[in-house]
Amino acid sequence: MEYENQYRLTPRPKYDCLLFDLDDTLYPISSGLQRECGKNIKDYMVEKLGIEKDKIVELSNALYKNYGTTMAGLRAIGYDFDYDEYHSYVHGRLPYENLRQDPLLRSLLLSLPVRKIIFTNADKDHAKKALKKLGLEDCFEGIICFETLNPIHKNTVSDDEDDIEFLGSSVTRNDSLKTPEIFDIIGHFANPNPDVTLPKTPIVCKPQESAIERALKIAKINPQRTLFFDDSVRNIQAGKRVGLHTVLVGSSQRPKGADYALESIHNIKQALPELWETDMKSEVNYTGQVAVETSVTA
Question: Does residue 281 surpass a pLDDT of 60?
């Protein structure tokens, strides 16, 4: 018994990985980026897709509600466009100057002795810019983004465990000269027909459970030992259904599907002190540049 006590192993930490959403999770909604993103999406629909202005609000709401992102919904109902062009238009004019360096969050993240990965619906350029503005570009092992989940070619993962890259390509378009037929989603809900079902989207994104499962597979993550942070109740609930432990960020009210709720990401140490209760190395540094593949936010 004496030897057993002397050589007793330290209990294994509960979590091996922390999976973080980016927008409105690692920075507050008060930054205004989400509002401007929504405006840019509506402008794109009018200017690039020729959708009537008076239909934009109702249409974008229906697409977001039923497909998770407006972009995924637009592709589902028949609009064809270049993904890079869409991201450039929607995110290229965002007020990134509203984001400020966050040394407190940086210190908290670097002191966490477990894997940390970004999982966003946004594109890689947006993720890189946002993380750099926040001063968090070297706090994560990698980034799972739109390009990661929607590649032309098979995703590959770097053989270097210290510098994981989730690779992919964002360009996916139908070069057919035939004008696509647009599904009338507004009419579908106004006059339901039991014989007609909503078309499926070719875009993989949260809150689809398949998107979360793909992200876990790409990053080799065990959902039972992973804590997932997101500001979207839908995303949190989808994560819970695939086995993740979940944290809703941006609210003190804990909805169904959330194990924890944080008013701000800065409250992480007060709410989850057990993340620091380990004999592992007290600081994890990622010296390589953050590898990014993004998903679309709206």
Answer: no
